[in-house]
Amino acid sequence: MLRLGHGAAALSIALAFLPAARPAAAALTAEEAVRLALRNNSNVVRAEAGVLDAKSGLYSSYAAILPSLSASLVRDNRVVEGNVGYFGSLPVEQDQESHGTTPQINATWNLFDLSSLTSFQSARAGLAAARHTRESARNDVVLSTLSQFYETVRTIHLASVASGALRVARDNERRARALFEVGSVSRSDLLKAQVQTAQSELDSLTASQAIVNQRIALAQQLGVAEEGLGEIDTVLTATAAEVDEAAILAEAAGNRPDVRAAEAELRAAKAARLAARLGRLPYVSLSGGATFDARSRTTNTTVRGISPFIPEGIDANESETDRTVSWRVALNWDVFDGLRTDAASASAEARLRRARDAHDALKRNLASEVRQAVLAYREAAERARVAARAVESAQENLNLTQQKYNVGSATILELVDAQVQATRAAADGVSARAAIRIAEARLDRVRGRGAR
């Protein structure tokens, strides 16, 4: 393991060009940024919604294989007035009124339905796929958040380097002007110092605007307003370590949630296609019902009767039943359903083809993705080592040039060139350390790890 830093020689550049460290408690850290993103990012919200949709599909499949039970209390009322009938050729007029109360329970159950059972298996696999997809989305958000966070930190450091370079350029311009006025340097030297100051001012303005842009991008990633983002922890250290590509590939194959999601979605699609095909087969259903303590009362009022056969008056009847139970078993076969089964089969086949292609592509590209991440990490680590050496060399060159200038053996232009080289080396060192942190996040993502 190698610790990457500027060393003693680079410390003076860091002190010259970088701002004083802010209290960590008052600044937004990378870990806090990840927590905010996992809570607010739209991709995470959509992934959570996808899990709810999958649960809804699972509950719907339960409804097709579990019994359905309902209970009701029925109150019947019936009134008939002026009902005229005939007894032979003689009219008979009656009024009727009936009331009844019937508590009842009804139940239905698809006792044996292969299509529904297979649909249930598909829904369970679909829910597993949705959950793995949610974890994959969270890992993607972690990677994009850390990348944007360290890009923002890098921009802040580069702006500090640019501000420090601008101060040095202005000092050099004042020094060159003073020497020009006493005739120690030519006007060309003064003009070159002025050009360097102007370029430094431009670089500083560009860097300041870049901070605003990166903060806005970070706030959008976190799902917060830029005004509420606050200060950002600008501590930027990196530790490079050797990585084993084969071990990372094995870990990715076993742990990657997107790979698991693709496998679960493929199982769900296969089960859905089978369920659609089984929909052409007969199925057995069971249904039944029961009534308890059913009561009814019927009143017939004869307004105009035929004595003695149908006398005028009121005739009331009451009935009460303790319990009535009925049930039936049916073998059902949807011989023709208006091509609904054909439509379901075509949709399931399309889903299977998409799922198989996504699964095969993910498996096929997994090794390449791991290799790219490993190479990017190794490149970032090597760049950091080279940048550290460049910073030390640039600082030593600047010290030597400053000493030579002090004794008159170096020109102002040579001093300016040494300062520019030191500034560029400091900026490269910042970029290299940020690149390592981003490469580390990418390695975690390719392994299937989320926030640590």
Characterization of the model:
The chain is α+β, with helices and mostly antiparallel strands. It has a domain of 316 residues: Up-down Bundle (Outer membrane efflux proteins (OEP)), CATH 1.20.1600.10. The protein contains nine helices and eight strands. It has a four-stranded antiparallel sheet. Strands 1-6 form a two-stranded antiparallel ribbon. The protein has a two-stranded parallel ribbon with strand order 2-5. A hairpin with an 8-residue loop joins strand 7 and strand 8. The N terminus is likely disordered.
Brief summary of the model shown:
With 452 residues, the protein is of the alpha+beta class.
Characteristics:
Outer membrane efflux proteins (OEP), 63% helix, four-stranded antiparallel sheet, alpha+beta, 8 strands, elongated, disordered N terminus
Q: What is the fold-level CATH name, i.e. the topology of the domain at 2-65 and 117-279 and 359-447?
A: Outer membrane efflux proteins (OEP)
Q: Based on Cα principal axes, name the global outline.
A: elongated
Query: Low-confidence spans: pLDDT under 50, at least 5 residues?
Result: 1-25
Oligomer: single chain
CATH superfamily of the domain at 2-65 and 117-279 and 359-447: Outer membrane efflux proteins (OEP)
How many individual β-strands? Answer: 8
Order of helical and strand elements: EHEHHEEHHEEHHEEHH
Strand order of the largest sheet: 3-4-7-8
Q: How would a textbook summarize the main sheet?
A: 4 strands, antiparallel
Radius of gyration: 41 Å
End-to-end distance: 20 Å
Tally of contiguous helical segments:
9
How much helix is in the residues? 55-70%
